[in-house]
Amino acid sequence: MSGHRKEGSDNKVEFLSTHLREKLEEIQRVLECLVQESSRGIPIIVEGKNDVRALRHLHVQGKIMCAKTAGKSRLDLLGQIEEGSFREVILLFDFDRRGREWTDTVKENLERAKVKPNLEFSNDLKVLVGREVKDIEGLASYIETLREKVGQTRVEEA
For residues 43 and 84, what is the distance between their CA atoms, to the nearest angstrom? Predict the structure, then answer.
């Protein structure tokens, strides 16, 4: 009888391991696409400097702009976007209530300025990490934790 429990337990562990591996692969796929879009010149707007550091750690090399920097207003940010003549901007704010508020506000301002706000990456990551990650700066450590759980020791580039 205990053999059946162990076997069931092993199946559950295997299922969780497979689920976590698939989740990690999907997050890595989204990040790979983000790296590609960024390298094509599409800027990314994040909330703060820690978010920039996290994205750099995840191999995002393109232009990353901070929405909340000391002394900078939303108008300054929009002016910076308009000066760059960007047609599209990726919004990647935190996954909490304030992040959603920032997303909505900046999105509306961008649309008024005839700049396309890209929410695809934010929405995809939000679905994948759920309530497990509340901010962009937590993504890198979350990915490392997933790698440890699935036994993926080799750090793969995003």
Answer: 10
What 97-103 contacts at long range (C-beta under 8 Å, 24+ apart), as own/partner pairs, is 99/47, 99/135, 102/47, 102/67, 102/68
Query: What sections of 63-138 are H helices per DSSP?
Result: 74-83, 97-112, 120-129
- Assign domain 2-150 to its CATH architecture: 3-Layer(aba) Sandwich (3.40)
Which residue has better confidence, 80 or 134?
134
For residue 98 the two structure tokens come to: 């304030």
Task: Show me where the domains of the chain are located.
Answer: 2-150
Whether the CB-CB separation of 99 and 107 falls below 8 Å is answered with no
Task: Count Cα neighbours of 116 within 13 Å in the Cβ-side half-sphere.
Answer: 5
The residue ranking higher by pLDDT, 80 or 9, is 80
Tokens encoding 34: 């983000």
Three-state SS at 154: coil
The structure tokens 């960024």 sit at 38
Contacts of 158 (CB under 8 A, 6+ apart): 28, 31, 32, 34, 35, 58, 59, 60
* 131 pLDDT higher than 90: no
